[in-house]
C-alpha cells in the first residue's frame, strides 16, 4: 500500500501534574475525517518523573532567592528555577528522543505538548511571579528540544474535564457509535480526581436551560458537535489528605488538648502511627472489639467502630466543605447526572479498585461497583490491626497505604455528596451506574489522550454558551503569555 495511504503518526504529551510529570508517547494511523472510524491510538511508552514540577517553586533555596530584593536577585532566582526545571524535564525529553531514534522518526516534526494542571494552577493568585516564571522556564526548556512544540502551559480545570471526557468516550463509546446519529445522546459522563483538583463532565439536560446559562460548552470533534457541562474543583486527593489532617488537629485543639502533640486519628487502623508536621497521629484502640456479622452474613460495625467511622466521615465532610463552590444544588443537574452512566478515572479508580475493591488474588474486581459495599469495606478494615494489614498488603506502596482509608473516604465524599453519583439501590429508578475505570492493558485512561483526540480531529475551538455572541473561544491556558 502506498506510503501516502497508511502513515503512522506520533505525538509526545507531558502531563505536569501535582505529584509528578509523566511522558506519554502516542502512535496512531492518519484519520480520514468525517464518519470514518476514529484511529486506534497506541501508547508504546510512558515514563514519570517525580515530584511535581510545581514543587520547584516551594524549594527552600528558591524561596530564599525569591525573597531577596533587587533586579539582580530576581534574575538569580529565575536562573535557579530554570536550572531546576531543566533538570526535571530533560530526562523525559531524553526518553522521547530515544524513542524517536529507535523508531527511525524525524523528531523535528513530532508534536510536543507540555501541559500543567492544578498543581501549577494553584500557584495563583498568591505566587503570581513564581507562576509566570515557572511557565516561562517550562517553555524555554521545551523550545530547546528538537521536537515540534505545539503547546506549553497550564490548562484550565475545564480543559482538564473536557479532555478526560473525550478520553473516556473515545475509549468506550466512539468506536461503536461515531457514525451513529445518536452519538451525542449516548455519551458517558466522566469524573476524575487528581492530586490537587477533581473534575466532572457530562451532557446537560436541555429541558430547563436557565441553570446552565454560562456553564455549557459547545465542543466540536471533527464534524461531531456536543454540549457539555464542565466543572473543576479544588478537591484533589493529596490536597484532601492535608486538609483532613489540618481539620483533625484543629478539632483536637478545640478540645483543649493543645499541650499534647499526639492525636487519635479515626482514619487509621490500630497500631498505625504517622507524623504530620510536629504532630503524631495514631489509630484508635478498640479494646478487642471485632466486626459483628449478621444472620445474612453481612458484616456490621460494632459500637466503638461505628463512633470512629462517624467521626472520620464528619471530619472528611468538614474538610471538603471548606474548599469552596460545588455543583449547583438544582434538581435539573441531578436529573442530568442520573441520565448518564459515569466513568471514574485517576484517583477515583485507585481509591476504589487497588487497595479496596480487589479480589482474593489482589486484582481489581470486575463486578459492578457499589458505593455501599465500598464504604463497608473501608469501615470494616479500620478495626483490623495495622501489622496484619501491612503483612497482607506487602505489595502495596507503604506511603499510599498509610493514608488509604482517608483517601477512600475523601473520594467517597466527593463522588456521593459533591458530584452526587451515589446510585443508592441501582434496581430502583432513577438509575445511575458508576464504574471505576483505568483503561485497558497497555492503554491507560488519561486526559492526555483526550487532548490528542482533540488535536487529531481538527483542534476546533470550543465556546462557552454565553460567549457565542461575542465569539469568545475556549483557551486551555490560564495565561496566554506562557504559551
From TrEMBL:
One GO cellular component term noted in the UniProt record for this chain: membrane
Catalytic site: 160
Keywords: ATP-binding, Hydrolase, Nucleotide-binding
GO MF assignments: ATP binding; GDP phosphatase activity; ribonucleoside triphosphate phosphatase activity; UDP phosphatase activity
Classification via Pfam families: GDA1_CD39
CDD domains for this protein: ASKHA_NBD_GDA1_CD39_NTPase
Residues binding ATP, per UniProt: 195-199
GO BP terms: CTP metabolic process; UDP catabolic process
Protein family membership: Belongs to the GDA1/CD39 NTPase family.
Protein's name according to its UniProt entry: Nucleoside phosphatase GDA1/CD39
Source organism of the structure: Galerina marginata (strain CBS 339.88)
Lineage: Eukaryota, Fungi, Dikarya, Basidiomycota, Agaricomycotina
Amino acid at each position: 500500500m502506498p506510503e501516502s495511504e497508511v502513515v503512522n503518526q506520533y505525538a509526545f504529551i507531558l502531563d505536569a501534574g501535582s505529584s509528578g510529570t509523566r511522558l506519554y508517547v502516542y502512535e496512531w494511523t492518519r484519520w480520514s475525517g468525517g464518519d470514518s472510524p476514529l484511529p486506534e491510538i497506541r501508547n508504546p511508552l510512558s515514563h514519570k518523573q517525580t515530584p511535581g514540577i510545581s514543587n520547584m517553586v516551594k524549594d527552600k533555596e528558591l524561596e530564599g532567592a525569591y525573597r531577596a530584593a533587587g533586579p539582580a536577585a530576581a534574575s538569580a532566582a529565575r536562573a535557579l528555577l530554570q536550572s531546576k526545571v531543566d533538570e526535571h524535564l530533560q530526562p523525559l525529553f531524553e526518553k522521547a528522543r530515544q524513542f524517536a531514534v529507535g523508531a527511525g522518526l524525524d523528531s523535528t516534526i513530532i508534536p510536543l505538548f507540555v501541559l500543567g494542571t492544578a498543581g501549577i494552577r494553584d500557584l495563583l493568585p498568591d505566587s503570581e511571579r513564581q507562576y509566570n516564571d515557572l511557565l516561562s522556564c517550562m517553555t524555554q526548556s521545551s523550545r530547546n528540544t528538537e521536537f515540534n512544540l505545539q503547546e506549553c502551559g497550564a490548562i484550565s480545570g475545564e480543559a482538564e474535564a473536557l479532555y478526560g471526557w473525550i478520553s473516556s468516550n473515545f475509549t468506550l463509546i466512539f468506536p461503536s457509535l461515531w457514525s451513529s446519529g445518536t452519538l451525542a445522546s449516548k455519551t458517558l459522563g466522566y469524573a476524575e480526581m487528581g492530586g490537587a483538583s477533581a473534575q466532572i463532565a457530562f451532557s446537560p439536560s436541555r429541558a430547563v436551560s436557565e441553570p446552565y446559562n454560562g456553564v455549557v460548552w459547545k465542543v466540536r470533534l471533527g464534524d461531531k458537535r456536543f454540549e457539555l457541562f464542565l466543572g473543576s474543583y479544588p478537591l484533589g486527593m493529596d490536597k484532601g489528605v492535608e486538609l483532613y489532617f489540618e481539620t483533625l488537629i484543629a478539632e483536637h485543639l478545640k478540645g483543649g488538648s493543645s499541650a499534647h502533640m499526639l492525636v487519635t486519628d479515626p482514619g487509621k487502623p490500630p497500631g498505625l502511627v504517622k507524623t504530620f508536621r510536629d504532630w503524631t497521629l495514631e489509630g484508635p484502640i478498640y479494646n478487642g472489639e471485632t466486626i459483628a456479622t449478621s444472620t445474612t452474613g453481612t458484616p456490621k460495625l460494632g459500637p466503638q467502630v461505628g463512633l470512629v467511622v462517624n467521626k472520620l466521615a464528619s471530619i472528611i465532610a468538614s474538610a471538603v466543605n471548606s474548599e469552596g463552590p460545588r455543583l449547583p444544588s438544582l434538581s435539573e443537574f441531578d436529573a442530568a447526572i442520573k441520565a448518564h452512566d459515569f466513568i471514574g478515572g485517576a484517583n477515583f479508580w485507585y481509591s476504589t479498585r487497588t487497595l479496596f475493591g480487589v479480589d482474593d488474588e489482589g486484582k481489581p474486581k470486575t463486578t459492578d461497583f457499589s458505593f455501599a459495599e465500598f464504604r463497608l469495606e473501608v469501615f470494616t478494615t479500620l478495626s483490623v490491626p495495622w501489622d496484619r494489614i501491612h503483612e497482607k498488603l506487602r505489595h502495596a506502596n507503604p506511603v499510599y497505604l498509610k493514608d488509604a482509608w482517608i483517601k477512600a473516604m475523601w473520594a467517597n465524599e466527593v463522588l456521593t455528596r459533591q458530584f452526587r453519583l451515589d446510585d443508592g439501590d441501582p434496581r430502583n429508578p432513577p438509575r445511575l451506574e458508576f464504574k471505576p475505570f483505568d483503561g485497558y492493558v497497555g492503554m491507560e485512561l488519561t486526559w492526555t489522550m483526550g487532548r490528542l483526540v482533540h488535536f487529531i480531529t481538527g483542534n476546533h475551538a470550543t465556546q462557552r454558551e454565553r460567549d457565542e455572541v461575542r465569539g469568545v473561544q475556549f483557551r486551555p491556558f490560564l495565561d496566554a503569555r506562557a504559551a
